Amino acid sequence: MNRKYEPKIVALLCTYCTYTAADMAGSMRLQYPSNVRVVKLLCTGKVDVVYLLGAFRAGADAVMVSGCEIGDCHFLEGNLRAKERVEHAKTLLDELGLDARRLEMFHIGASDAPKWAAAVEQMTRRALELGPNPLGQASAAVERTGEELTR
Ligand code: FES
Asked: Which residues contact 105 (CB under 8 A, 6 or more apart)?
């Protein structure tokens, strides 16, 4: 069976900025890929390396974190901490052979809906270039095997 690859992208978004921009993009009817699943956070400072790796383990082909512009975080340095954690997670992705380009940090303000749409397009292009996340394929295979065993 030859299924078309449609990348699954997980986006962890700060409610004060990028989440609003994503909402506005919908209201403005901006065109961008619909393959992104949004997780709303109070601040990207909540992002932990464990969450990022967990998203890949669950089958995400790419993960994006997007918070307030530098200097605009409502919790002062949450976005800076998130940026450091994303950089750390990228080194782990490379060590695991998953490719650090599957993960990216963005800073997108509440009124910047076009920047949000462009970021989703950028990550979708990358995920298409890199191909499916091998961990996602493995977990799908385990799931299928489990289903077959329980029939
Ligand atoms: Fe938006 Fe911290 S409040 S990133």
From this structure: 44, 64, 65, 66, 67, 82, 83, 86, 87
Calculate the average pLDDT of the chain.
92
Tokens of 124: 């979708």
C-beta of 17 in contact with ligand 1 (< 6 A): yes
User: Which ligand 1 atom sits closest to the C-alpha of 16?
Assistant: 1
Architecture of domain 9-149: 3-Layer(aba) Sandwich (3.40)
Q: Which pTM value belongs to this model?
A: 0.89
| Cβ(65) – ligand 1 distance below 6 Å | no
Start-end of H helices in 34-77: 49-57
Tokens of 76: 């002062």
Name the closest-CA residue to atom 4, ligand 1. 67
Token pair of 18, please? 């990028």
Among the residue ranges 15-19, 124-128, 134-138, the one predicted with the least confidence is: 134-138
Distances in Å between the Cα of 138 and the Cα atoms of 10, 40, 118 are 18, 27, 30
